[in-house]
Amino acid sequence: QVQLVESGGGLVQAGGSLRLSCAASGTIRSIAVMGWYRQVPGLQRELVAFVTSGRTTNYADSVKGRFTVSRDNTKNTVNLQMNRLKPEDTAVYYCRADDLIYPSGDYTYRLWGQGTQVTVSS
Fold first, then answer.
1. How many Cα atoms within 13 Å fall on the side-chain side of residue 112?
2. Strands annotated E in 54-122
3. SS3 65
4. pLDDT by residue (tens digit) across 11-31?
5. Which residue in 102, 94, 98 sits closest to 32, CA to CA?
6. Is residue 94 a contact partner of residue 118, using CB atoms and an 8 Å limit?
7. What is the CB neighbour count within 10 angstroms for residue 113?
8. How far apart are alpha carbons 28 and 61 in whole angstroms?
């Protein structure tokens, strides 16, 4: 069974940097979109950034110019480089993969990772 495994969260001071990584386990032929979302307790999960298999990217306004999303299609990984972090970036960050196709031709609409905590202290 394919899973998304995240790593790289932690505690950092405001102005610092963190890099999140997410890898899809198993054998996958293609993933249309991979991205990152975040959630603060009591609030809805929100988009941070995503990247398509064609390298098109999209960012939340709040992270533009500070975060960079990238992926390796051959390894089915997606990374999020987070610079100039702010206390308001504190959240659980979730990796998401959409439209997965397997060598057998089977299809999965969406997968979520387990989440990784990012805490930015002021």
1. 11
2. 57-59, 67-72, 77-82, 91-101, 107-112, 116-121
3. coil
4. 999 999 999 999 999 999 999
5. 98
6. no
7. 22
8. 31
Instruction: Output the six-digit token pair for 32.
Output: 């249309």
Residue burial 6-42, b: 16+ Cβ < 10 Å; e: rest: bebbeebeeeeebebbbbbeeebeebebbbbbbeeee
Mean pLDDT, residues 3-8? 95
- Sign (positive or negative) of CA dihedral 103, 24, 79, 95: positive
104 three-state secondary structure: coil
How many CA atoms lie within 13 Å of 87's alpha carbon, on the beta-carbon side? Answer: 2
Fill in the amino acid letter for 30: S
| pLDDT-based confidence at residue 1 (cuts at 50, 70, 90) | confident
Strand bridging mode 67-72 / 77-82: antiparallel
Query: What is the rounded distance in angstroms from the CA atom of residue 77 to the CA atom of residue 24?
Result: 6
